[in-house]
Batch of 2 targets.
Target 1
Amino acid sequence: MKINKIYFDNAATTKVDKNVLKSMMPYFSNSFGNSSSIHSYGQKAEGSVLKSRDIIAKFLNCRSNEVIFTSGATEANNTVLKGVFFDFKGHLITSAFEHPCVLETAKYLQKNGVEVDFVRPEKNGIIDSKKVLSLIKDNTRLVSIMYANNEIGTIQPIGHIGKKIRELNQNRQNKVFFHTDAVQATQFLQMNVERLYVDFLSMSSHKIYGPKGMGAFYVRKETRLKPLFHGGHHEYGLRAGTLNVPGIIGFSRAIELIASEEHKKDILNIQKIRDYVVKEVLKIDGTILNGDRELRIPNNANFLFKNVEGESLLLKLDMKGIAISTGSACASGSLSPSHVLLSMGIKPESAHGSMRISLGKYNTIDEAKYFVKELKKIVKELRKYSPLK
Ligand SMILES: Cc1ncc(COP(=O)(O)O)c(C=O)c1O
């Protein structure tokens, strides 16, 4: 078995599916019109955008005019949070282990006058819905809880929280809106917005084999949101800017593919490989699986190795051609321990020894076997010279 390069970092980004790439190609230099133009070039582009919007609306079970295209989930999350708190008044509830694009936005709003509660997850990386609901007060305007955590893959009870908020809203004049960052959940979990009882939901294309710089959010028509960008009347007044037509086409093709029967088979395979990796890696002494064993998306495993420095592990594995992560891509490069692990009560000195693998549909069991073999050797070697002992 000859293995050259292994990519186990699909939560950071995925390879663009060749069918996605093919669908995008005509829109760069043939059907290149601006979808806002009236002439036939524009109409052609607009027609294709409408089809893409319909595909995504069907996937989410919402109306087509409730899908707003953005440059990615960072923009989608910023738009929702800042769009609700445009006047910096009221109360926001979020979690302490959100992706930085929610967490930093929440801190920015807090600095400017919004009251913010950051709910910490339980030890297993799951948010207790009761804790979230108990924090709701008269001036609460938004609850924002991620669907699946990007570092430890744990799945949050979004449908349950959403349903309870909807019930509460029946007796409230000032409705509480509910948002979820569904970036890491999109290809694995229930995405029907009616079943999730959400008012806003964010997605990113490059995590599901689509192009980078492309995302969208769902916005329930009954909500009130101020736009982040002002300019033309694009995206129902919620996001000015010429539409990224090739990106939109690619994103909707990626959505079609993850909604297919073929993808269901891919997920089973991904889970099988992940379970094999978990079983084998936990045989290494002093190793813990971070996050709930069952309630996690099927492609994620996050380990903690006693007396091992995560960055050294990453570099050693990279030298063997294996790409993993020690946290979210945005956090790597900084030496501070993962805020996700800290929020779960893991000590900073232990959090440094963490490693995330996130699998994708192109990974194979042979790759997993090679990975486990190399990992065992590397952990042993690093422990031998570890000053942490
Ligand atoms: C949970 C989560 N939210 C948001 C983002 C940001 O998405 P984008 O890269 O599209 O801005 C990411 C990407 O790492 C993510 O994992």
Target 2
Amino acid sequence: MLPDDVPPIGLGTAGVDDPALIADAIDTGYRFIDTAQRYGNEAAVGAGIRQADVGRDRLFVATKVHERNLAYEDVLQTTAESLDRLGIAQVDLLYVHWPLEAYDPPETFQAFDELYDDGRIKHVGVSNFTPALLDEAHDHLDAPITANQVEMHPLLPQRKLRSYLSTHDIALVAYGPLMVGDVFDVPEITAIAERHDVSAAQVSLAWLLEQGVYPIPRGDTPTHFRDNLAARGLSLDDEDLDQLERIGRTRRVYTNDTVWPTE
Ligand SMILES: NC(=O)c1ccc[n+]([C@@H]2O[C@H](COP(=O)([O-])OP(=O)(O)OC[C@H]3O[C@@H](n4cnc5c(N)ncnc54)[C@H](OP(=O)(O)O)[C@@H]3O)[C@@H](O)[C@H]2O)c1
């Protein structure tokens, strides 16, 4: 599980490479920042962290090792490079981005264990892992798995995975929590938004918070990232939750047939 002081809404930064925007988001209230080697923006995120009026010790910074860098030596070397780019001595959460390409559980997790033991990473995470892949990871990793980052929103409720994660005390971090913008086209969600006079983004995020997961909506626009943070104040009633529960259609925005079957 993530530590209790990790705020439930994080900032997704894929494609965000302006340090001033990152700093603005932090000053607005974001404390959990999600980046990745793959996004090519760790240096911009690091610069934004330094520009913000909030100390590094009050932030929870997560990055991910690119799937092509998952061989033992590459994990060690590229994580050191990520820390340099971010300008921090320790990353709070380091994920395996996808269990693909150079992913090799004994090698990959030996390197993650070493980074954990010598304090360069505070928590180990995985991303895009199914229960079977998590079982395999547990066989090779001594450090606890703190979080699994996967796509989740009202049209992809991840019920089976959530039940596995709660049994194993692993937090779910939800990417694509706004279906990359498509939540605005889901009538069941927009109807609830109208009823509460809020955005459809807030409804999706409030629903995710209600499920006890950590959404990380992407924020490249100040009005958007402010709107998203305000979802913390939206409380959905039983009728809303029931309506979302009954949507009955499934949609996965990010598909990778090697790991997740297309639904
Ligand atoms: N682990 C993985 O494999 C993986 C995969 C995909 C994503 N991620 C992470 O998850 C984060 C979020 O996922 P995502 O970027 O794919 O999708 P998302 O957060 O579901 O949707 C982002 C889109 O919604 C727009 N948006 C955000 N807030 C809005 C609001 N309040 N009103 C209207 N539009 C709004 C954004 O526009 P603006 O940008 O202009 O605000 C952007 O176009 C990423 O940034 C990344 O950090 C991880």
